[in-house]
Amino acid sequence: MSSIKPLIAGNWKMNGLRADMDEFAAMAQGFSSELASKADAMICPPFTLIAALANHPDRGALAVGAQDCHPAASGAHTGDISAAMIADCGATAIIVGHSERRHDHDEGDALVAEKAQAVWEAGLTAIICVGETEAERRGGTTLSVIEQQLAGSVPLGATSRNTIIAYEPVWAIGTGLTPGTDDVAEVHGFVRSFLEGRFSEEGTAMRLLYGGSVKPGNASELMLVPDVNGALVGGASLKATDFLGILRAVS
Ligand code: PEP
């Protein structure tokens, strides 16, 4: 059994208005000290809600993160948000390299690495996402794709405190499909070996999240896979009952 405390991180994507702060409050209230002793939990809302959620009177131990940032700390980048601004709002982590950013905005590994560096410079933790497409899985190139993404997206200064890796097969995100536990074990074992090869004991201690259609009903099975230290959850993080159901399944 791993000594790494699991993290369940919710990614609200482009969902959430001020009215949804009640849902966040329900999550925070349900995240009891008993649950919090067994797993950490975080919600990554859209930028517009970060300050309100991070400063919510009921937040308790439920951390708040962000979904992306610009690689620069400040400057002439109309419409962008820096990691320092996100830190200023009270968030503690930022997701970078999510497949929806990689595909919708053409973000490549080098940019993801620059963003991770910016996250660290703001004193926050980078949740760096990697994952293969359906065509890559079918073509048998999953591990080489993951290796390339890790090599290009995780800067050399990564430690177990400033970095979390999320393995998210693109074809499993929002589809209700999940890989078999053997497939998850194969990729997570590969990611662990890569990180240990590059960062030695820091790689051993780094959290590895699985993401892609995690629900209360499949969370315990997925979280029992070796080298899975939690989950990055999209759809099921929007409702307190689902999010807390996942936390209970893991704890
Ligand atoms: C995600 O967007 O990171 C994700 C895993 O989504 P879902 O849980 O909805 O598949």
- Small-molecule binders: phosphoenolpyruvate
Average residue-wise pLDDT: 97
The ordered string of helix (H) and strand (E) elements is: EHHEHEHEHHEHHEHEHEH
Number of helices: 11
The domain count comes to 1
Tell me the distance between the termini.
Answer: 13 Å
Assign the structural class, choosing from mainly alpha, mainly beta, alpha/beta, alpha+beta, or little secondary structure: alpha/beta
Under CATH, the topology can be stated as TIM Barrel
Radius of gyration based on Cα positions: 17 Å
Q: Which stretches are low in confidence, meaning pLDDT under 50 for 5 or more residues running?
A: none
The largest sheet, given as strand count, sense and whether it forms a barrel, is: 8 strands, parallel, barrel
What's the CATH H-level homologous superfamily?
Answer: Aldolase class I
